[in-house]
Each structure stands twice: as C-alpha cells, then as structure tokens.
Amino acid sequence: MSEQEYRMVPLAYPLVGYLSLNEQECYVSAVMSLKPSQGHVRRLLERLQEMFPSVKIPNPIHPAMVHLAESLGFTRTREYWELANEWIDVWVWEARE
Predict the structure, then answer these.
(1) In a 3-state reduction of DSSP, which class is residue 82?
(2) DSSP string spanning 26-50?
(3) Hey, which bits of 1-97 come out as E strands?
(4) What does the domain layout of the chain look like in residue ranges?
(5) pLDDT tens for residues 12-37?
(6) pTM, 2 dp
C-alpha cells in the first residue's frame, strides 16, 4: 500500500477512526465504536461493500473484528506494507462480477 495513492477520510460519531480509499478499494485503517455491540461497525463494512469493489482490513486487533470480517465474507491474506517494511495480515473482501 503506497500512502500517497489514497485519500484519508475520518469517520463520524458513533465511530472513531479513518478510512484510506481510492476509486477501486477502501482500507479500513482504524475503526472503533463508541457504542459497542450496536452494529455500527457491521453497517459501515456492509455499506463499504456496496460502494467499493475491494474492502481491506489490515491487521485487525480485536478478535471481534476478525469474527465480523469472516461473517461478512472477508478472507485472510498477507500484504507487504512498505511504510513498516514488513508483511501484515489483511482481511480482504472482493466484489464478484
């Protein structure tokens, strides 16, 4: 992921975090709900799946995020992150044509 190719977009209440996006894909770089267990993160991911051909969640920290990604059809892959100079886990959802 090359940082200059993406536009950073902050999230609005009740979510905290930001998205990195361009026309073809959206990275859910960081997201947290200020009102947990109310479905806000799920709705965000479902909406992103409607808007982008590819949605990616790099290095989800919380096991609940991994479970949510799996339930929405994301699959675990590995991607090289140039900024950190290392391989990371990335959960990916690709639209079917």
Answers:
(1) coil
(2) EEEEEEEESSTTSSHHHHHHHHHHH
(3) 7-10, 15-21, 25-33, 54-58, 75-81, 86-94
(4) 3-94
(5) 889 988 888 888 899 998 888 898 88
(6) 0.85
Strand order in the sheet with 7-10: 7-10, 15-21, 25-33, 54-58, 86-94, 75-81
In this structure, which CATH number among 3.40.630.30, 3.40.50.720, 3.90.190.10, 3.10.20.600 belongs to the domain 3-94? 3.40.630.30
21: which residues sit within 8 A by CB, 6+ positions away?
A: 6, 7, 9, 27, 52
Q: Are 55 and 26 in contact (CB under 8 A)?
A: yes
Closest CA to 12 of 40, 52, 36: 40
Separation between Cα atoms, residue 76 and residue 60, nearest integer Å:
10
In sequence order, the 6+-apart residues with CB closer than 8 A to the CB of 45 are 28, 55, 68, 69, 72
